[in-house]
Description:
Layout lengths: L1 H14 L17 E8 L6 H20 L7 E8 L4 H13 L5 E3 L4 H5 L2 H6 L3 E3 L21 E2 L5 H16 L4 E6 L2 H17 L6 E4 L7 H9 L4 E5 L2 H13 L5 E4 L7 H6 L7 E4 L11 H14 L5 H20 L5 H8 L27 E7 L2 E9 L4
Parallel strand pairs: 1-2, 1-3, 3-4, 4-5, 6-7, 6-8, 8-9, 9-10
Antiparallel strand pairs: 10-11, 11-12
Amino acid sequence: MQMKYLAIVVAGAACAAQPAAAQFKTQGVTDTEIVLGTHQDLSGPIKAWGVPAANGLKLAADEINAAGGINGRKIKLIVEDSGYDPKKAVLATQKLIERDGIFAMISPMGSATTLAPLPIVQRAGILHLFPITAAEFTYKMDPGKPEDRLKFNIFVPYYDTMRIGLHWAVKNKGFKAPCIIYQDDEMGKNFTDAYKDEVEALKIKAGTMASFKRGATDFGSQVAKAKADGCDLVALGSVVRESVGIVTTAKKLGWEPGFVASTPTYVPDFPELGKENAAGVYGVGQVEIIDSAAATGKVKAFIDAYKAKFGVEPNNQVIAGYNGLMTFAFYANLAGKNLTTESLLDAMESGKEFVDIFGSPPIKFSKTDHLGVAEALVAQVKDGKWQTVAKNQGYKD
């Protein structure tokens, strides 16, 4: 029975690709309440991301409601578990729209689990806001598809963070011969595209482009090739474990170039796992890594509130969920008492900026650009942790 239902859902999603199907509608808004829905991985392979992101959304909802809500309306947040399974995400989305009557989908988790149900959201005329993935499809608009106006995102894409890192390092640290070691998959392609475009923009010669398969543990040949080719800066198109492996291999070979990593490596685990081998590595990210011991003001209050509610320290995954709902609240307040899908779209496309409490680049949308941020910060591993060295960086002079 469930499989039959899923087949019907997927068939309906396919129909959503037709522009004529896009009819924006408003549901989930009463005089006292705004119903929002999300799906997170609460039980699957990336639950270490999904659970804190869901908790961040819940904390934001609590704070908004305690402060009186949005123009007098309280947030009702409904969280579904996708298990990081696109099929489950489709079913969860159908349930949230049809049974729960959500006003908007807010901060769903993951690329594949966001892509599969997206046509359902668009077909329903429901806003699809701030998914926790940097994938281009979450914000790119096709002029021939009016339903694409419903998509917004607030996360800097992998492509951009790689270009920002290379641009900053070459311009500010004097590197002249950058190369790239990257994972040979779709994620890696984002990084290699960025690398090729940035070295061309900088008018410097492209160097070594050495790949490895997902799950690799031996990086000797890639590092040796980059060293032999005279590379002085290695761009890391990799995730945490592989990035640690690459910098560790370089140290074993007695080679100490500069390293610059993108967002998959800009996490607390990298300096913790890499130890002395991680020292000096540059990383690009959107939000400063939380340091509870040094936090003050609103950030300290956020940390204390999260610990009181959930019993653990918050991390950057928490911030991803928290900021998603806080961004929604900012623009929903701007939309005024008569909250509709159209009034919220107009507010979001107004060019007004949302600034979070964490020192991130401001978020701003327009009628032609639904990616809210194009800047990132640059950090460096010092004394065993990421420390910010430059904020609000881009790759366009």
